[in-house]
Amino acid sequence: MRVLTLNPGSSSVKAALVVDGTAVGWSAWETNGSTVDERTIADAVGRWREVDAVAVRFVHGGSRREPALVDEELLDALERLGRFAPLHQPQSVAIARAARNVYRATPVVACFDTAFHVDLPEAAAHYPLPREWTRQGRLRRYGFHGLSCQYVARRAVAMLDLDPAVARLVCCHLGAGVSVTAIHGGRGVDTSMGFTPLEGPAMATRSGTVDPGLLLYVMEAASMSPAGMADALYRRSGLAGMSGTSGDLREVRAAVKAGEPDAVLALEVYLHRLRREIGGVAMSLPRLDAIVFTGGVAEHCPELVERLADGLRLLGIVVDPARCAGTGDRVISPDGVSVASMVLMAREDLELARGAERTLTHARTG
Ligand SMILES: Nc1ncnc2c1ncn2[C@@H]1O[C@H](COP(=O)(O)OP(=O)(O)O)[C@@H](O)[C@H]1O
Ligand SMILES: CC(=O)OP(=O)(O)O
Ligand SMILES: [Mg+2]
Questions:
Q1: Fewer CB in 10 Å around end: N or C, the chain?
Q2: ipTM above 0.95, yes or no
Q3: Residue 119 annotated as catalytic
């Protein structure tokens, strides 16, 4: 089956053509946090025309467990979740609508980041808030980057020859969005992103977790509206806010090299908070077989992975600088250590294609 996969991230839109489970072509457009324009949508959606299905990544699927065939009713429901993932969901809706217009007779399938985390244990998913808020089960932790986690779980187990039923992994997704997830036997057991993709470590432009008391104080003291606060937390915080750059790690590192103190501190905070979250989610595992670094930062910046891992020795994590500096999917720990460390390319495209194939087979066979 030929599947056009479309992956709107917070700093990019990626398209890939996957034929019978193998990607045969890729394209990417950098958007750097701005709303994806009509031209990029048209280019991405029309990138390959001879296809049997189009699969679109939606970070938020609510409590949906499985990918779903897109129709107007589903798109309306997914659009209503846009306020909970404003850097992603509106772009996915626009891309899916454009795909439906272009490929009239071709099925469009929505695949959800949240689906991987649907069975998070209650202790990890539940917020310590008044029970009248949480009783309906909507104000809870959803988790994101699920397509990436799903791929990592399969690929790491295969590369390390682990028993998939018990493998204990931490997936550290380092893109413009950043999250860490503990995976036990292929299931997510804790994850750093929560009700929205704002929670967790500091990200390119997102704050990650901040004392809610500080936010309450600023909203009151500066008479800030919820929309103003959302703009600050989603678009003007993280590496961007701390360093005064765009938040792209390439720019932050250039500023660090130039000796700019705000950038130096920003990178230290970024690494500190990441290690703290990794330590936090790892506590949901009985022991650790492997930690996997994935996403644009892990793929392109091995120096940062090495520096990050250097502060994770308490978990038994040790990396070999020569292996770290390599390319492609690889083990970066020395031989004989008890916890393997790996860098894997984020292959959400392959998960999107699998989701589309599964959905269409199911639709055909009833
Ligand atoms: N050569 C590079 N060196 C350091 N960081 C890079 C490099 N190329 C890309 N990145 C980082 O990867 C991030 C994008 O990650 P990616 O996972 O592709 O994006 P998205 O979150 O949009 O899906 C950028 O914000 C940038 O910080
Ligand atoms: C969920 C999320 O933040 O995704 P991305 O890193 O692709 O922006
Ligand atoms: Mg991404």
A1: C
A2: yes
A3: no
